[in-house]
Amino acid sequence: MGTNGKLQSLQHDEQPELEMARRARDFRQEMQHRRSVRDFSDRPVPREVIEECLLTAGSAPSGANMQPWHFVAVSDPDVKRQIREAAEREEYAFYHGLASDEWLADLSHLGTHVQKPFLEQAPYLIVVFAQPYGLLVDGGKKKHYYVRESVGIATGMLVAALHHAGLVALTYTPTRMGFLRDLLGRPENERPFIVVVTGYPADGAKVPDLQKKGLSEIATFVE
Ligand code: IYR
Predict the structure, then answer these.
(1) CB burial readout 24-34, b (16+ within 10 A) else e
(2) Distance separating alpha carbons of residues 151 and 70, to the nearest angstrom
(3) For 164-193, what is each residue's pLDDT tens digit?
(4) 103 C-alpha vs ligand 1 centroid, how far in Å?
């Protein structure tokens, strides 16, 4: 973990410009087919695929290379059921009082509701934890930096890796997620960040008809 202060040679695969443009376009096209999916098949996914995708996530940049994350990959049906039951209790509170009318109106086009069957159907729930600080062996605390940025980047890389491998995923955030730390027995320095639900889509799975913003809406070039 971390570095020892020594430097090593960079391994970098430079591409000719035409090839670089082609690769950038191909990757964009591949990623543009990624959709958040809520309808999962219960078909099992090889654990090795999940392990490889987690290692990709773990290669993300992080503040001072502290790697302030932990991923809990849940395939145990009993634990998945407990997560579903607790999540649905939180969602009930969300849809029946916690959420503002504006929030509910903004979600209406997604068709989401209290029931979260995907938490039991999908073969893997990857619960991403953020570590605001590390725990030293002597019980002391080690400061972590830019934790949300770091864990957000790692989660993005996880989602991209799963998609690239041929799986679908849903980034799922119950309004209050504290139950995940208790249920999964994680240490006091970990906070649930997001749940990445992953597996194969159900036969005939449907997704909302969404549009993504164009380049001129999301980017400005200063040249
Ligand atoms: N967690 C709830 C509500 C929800 C909130 C947002 I912001 C979304 O993009 C989607 C859903 C649910 O999953 O139903």
Answers:
(1) eeeeeeeeeee
(2) 9
(3) 999 999 999 998 999 999 999 999 999 999
(4) 9
Amino acid in the structure at residue 78: D
Which residue has its alpha carbon closest to ligand 1 atom 2?
A: 174
Structural domain boundaries in the chain: 44-201
Are the CB atoms for 190 and 181 separated by under 8 Å?
yes
How far is 134 from 190, CA to CA, in rounded Å?
9
DSSP 8-class letter at 93 = H
Q: Which CATH architecture has domain 44-201?
A: 3-Layer(aba) Sandwich (3.40)
Residues of the chain by 3-state class (helix, strand, coil), percent to 5: 45, 15, 40
Q: Are 126 and 91 in contact (CB under 8 A)?
A: no
C-alpha 21/C-alpha 19 separation (Å) is 5
Average pLDDT of the residues in 95-123:
95
Ligand 1: atom nearest CA of 175 is: 1
Ligand 1 cavity residues, CB under 6 Å:
91, 94, 107, 110, 112, 172-175
The three-class DSSP label of residue 120 is helix
